[in-house]
């Protein structure tokens, strides 16, 4: 679907794809079974594209004129950490992650 240019988003509305109604479990399932999709693309599917598909045109991104809900993740050394590794760690919960959520 992605290669065809369609908007693909991640959501939770049933227990069909995993045994919890959890966006994080949905993200992990996609990351596990579709390794060709980058962690950045998976995160976009769960945020920006999800908001777009639901008609929330001014949500899901940190852009001028948008109303973002923001998840701030504490990174020990932001100059050394690659964004893909941070997202991969977040998806897999490979380490304890400190965060704050702002609406």
Automatic annotation (TrEMBL):
Residues 2-78 form the Amidohydrolase-related domain. Pfam families: Amidohydro_1. One of its GO terms (molecular function) is hydrolase activity. It comes from the Bacteria. Coiled coil: none annotated. Keywords: Hydrolase. The keyword Hydrolase applies. SUPFAM superfamilies: Metallo-dependent hydrolases. This is Metal-dependent hydrolase. It comes from Thermodesulfobacterium geofontis.
